[in-house]
Amino acid sequence: MEIRIQPEARSPEVGIPDGGVVLGTLDATPLEFWIGVQEGGVVQLDDLVVAETRLPDGQRVRFYGVVDQVRKRYEGTYYDNDAFRVTDGMLPADVSYAAHVQVTRIDPEVFIPPSPGDRARVVRGEEFQRALYFDTFSRRIPIGLTRTGEPVYANLEFLDGTRGAHVSISGVSGVATKTSYATFLLYALFHSGALGMDATNAKALVFNVKGEDLLWLDHPNARMDEAARAEYARLDLPVGPFRSVAFYAPARRHSHIPIPDVGSRSTGVRPYLWTLREFCREGLLRFCFAEAEDARAQVSFVVARVENHLRRLAEQGDPDDPGLSVEERRLRTFRDLVDYLDTPVLDSWVSVAPGTLDAFRRRLHAAADRMGHLVRGDREAMGWRIDWQAQQVTVVDLHTLPAQAQMFVVGVLLKRMMEEKERQGTARPLVFVVLDELNKYAPREGTSPIRDVLLDIAERGRSLGVSLFGCQQTASEVERRVLANAALKVVGRLDPAEAERGEYGWLTRTARLRAQLLQPGTMIVSQPDIPTPLLVRFPFPAWATRQSEAALPEDEDPFARL
Q1: pLDDT digit string (tens) for 323-354?
Q2: Structure confidence by residue, pLDDT tens digits, 72-113
Q3: How many CA atoms lie within 13 A of 435 on its CB side?
Q4: What is the DSSP string of 474-504?
Q5: Which residues contact 496 (CB under 8 A, 6 or more apart)?
Q6: What pLDDT does 16 receive?
């Protein structure tokens, strides 16, 4: 039957359709309870409710919670076929409509259960924010909206390193909108005003690994409609593109003059290169051997010894010379360096088994084919390093590079960023790093130089003001310590088998099932201040995510490239 409320027990809120009472037929505890929904009422998943009970001394205790399960059933029936008889009017029965509430906050903290018959109601506005502790956040950023349009916030202290850092975003590729949500979080950080004075010098380093979607962040989205603008207004965010963005793309192969290897954008993108002297002086050889099998093959010892020799060679001669001169031999390209090492000189530098040296040479030749064009020793290669501090957001395009070259670029940049932060010795200015396919760069199995750098960021980044926004299809394949250090955990659509893995233990049983059904633009977020994950949706990007969405200024010629 419908759960009825006796007239004398009804609250003033009974007049609204989304009230109810705490049930007495199921256990009520301080952490969870069931409410019966009154006739004509509607209580849905994700609704925030409050139930109030009174202590013997008259003190009132409020139990705020989120609805994580709702169900209906006939009362007084025993068999499945009874549903047909009730429908045909042959058997009397009423409908029981109940909702399970996972408690998020008890105010004041008196850990008694609510009493059966206590009044419950759905909350909005100020009470909604109280239910989720938003009133206790001294600094907060919007992270999305509930299904009913209530803004949801994250405690900034768990993103800027004050009490925690890092975000882990998981989900199926193409459906979970992981990168879109990561860029939305960045937008909220830089445009909500939550960072205060830190916003002036805070930086973001974004790696673009798929397509050229992130090469249009500085253009407004021409497909924004009024509904999307209203959602930004509810989040108190301006509508527009990122204000300060620099774009870098790898230099095109076989081009003497460095030009960016991009297809859709003709202006505003700088190519990036490293000189041969920088490569040797800064010890970047290890990032040419970034795959796990390189460590297992004992090649890492050879790499370390060769790096030392190359560093000494780079310290000789003119420091402004992009190339190297060795034994009357001029090295102008990465291939020249590989050929030089493919001589007896390597045997004189490192004393190991011939098979190990052969493995080193074999991998080095493979690296030359895949990323050799990014390291050059000619004059035209000078001055094309990535300056990730010049603008507020720096997008580094990788999508045209082979996997080994992508690892080289990511490893080199993150290593340099961490070294510069260590030299500064302070947590300010803040740096936010967005890296997709984290399972490739920080895999659970094996070791590699880039994995070590990411582990360092996960474990020490908080104290240095570095926050990692890592995205991956499968968190079960990412190094555990990287995941464990993430303060915010987010999932979009999950594969059913992946959703059952232990890495998603922070999801409730219902949330695991819902994660398999999530639509693009909807995420489930867990944060330290709130004891249960929340479902949020984020608004349509106000910045272009592809060329067709970019609202070009009138003075920009779309045919300039031609």
Answers
A1: 998 888 899 999 999 999 988 888 888 888 88
A2: 999 989 999 999 999 999 999 999 999 999 999 999 999 999
A3: 28
A4: -GGGB-HHHHHTEEEEEE-S--HHHHTSGGG
A5: 516
A6: 46
Strand 60-75 relative to strand 94-107: parallel, antiparallel, unpaired? antiparallel
**pTM for the structure as a whole:** 0.89
Question: What is the DSSP track for 28-57?
Answer: --SSEEEEEEPTT----TT-EEEEEEE-TT
Whether 148 contacts 99, CB under 8 Å: no
Residue type, 134: F
Length of the chain: 562
Nearest C-alpha neighbor of 106 from the set 531, 527, 488? 531
Sequence-ordered list of residues with C-beta below 8 angstroms from that of 128, at least 6 positions apart, any chain = 48, 150
The count of C-alpha atoms lying within 13 angstroms of the C-alpha of 158, restricted to the half-sphere facing its C-beta, is: 19
Which one, of 37, 44, 50, 41, lies nearest residue 97 by Cα? 37
φ, ψ at 177 (rounded to 5°): 55, 45
Strand, coil or helix: what is 542?
Answer: coil
Q: How far apart are CA 360 and CA 365, in angstroms?
A: 9
> What is the maximal distance between C-alpha atoms in the chain?
103
Enumerate the H helices of 169-239 as residue ranges. Answer: 178-191, 198-201, 226-234
* Nearest alpha-carbon partner for 155 in 140, 142, 143, 166: 140
CB 206 within 8 A of CB 393: yes
**41 near 4, Cβ under 8 Å?**
no
Q: How wide is the angle at C-alpha 127 spanned by C-alphas 125 and 129, nearest 5°?
A: 75
Paired with 94 in beta bridges are 75
**307 and 285 Cβ atoms separated by less than 8 Å:** yes
Give the three-class secondary structure for 67.
Answer: strand
Token representation of residue 546: 């592809």
Q: For residue 247, give the 3-state DSSP assignment.
A: strand
Closest residue by Cα to residue 142 from 541, 544, 436, 537:
537
Can you tell me the distance from the alpha carbon of 23 to that of 26, in angstroms, rounded to the nearest whole number? 6
pLDDT at 1 over 50: no
The rounded distance, in Å, linking the Cα atoms of 405 and 93 is 68
For tokens 């996997």, what's the residue? 403
C-alpha to C-alpha distance for 445 and 466, rounded to whole angstroms: 24
Measured between alpha carbons, how far is 28 from 104 in angstroms, rounded to an integer? 14
Mode of pairing for the β-strands spanning 203-208 and 431-435? parallel
Q: Tokens 């003033």 correspond to what residue?
A: 12
* Helix extents (H) in 6-151: 82-87, 125-131
What is each CA distance from 225 to 16, 55, 221, 222, in whole angstroms?
A: 32, 51, 10, 9
Distance (Å, whole) CA 472 – CA 470: 7
- SS3 per-residue string spanning 443-474: ECCCCCHHHHHHHHHHHHHHHHCEEEEEEECC
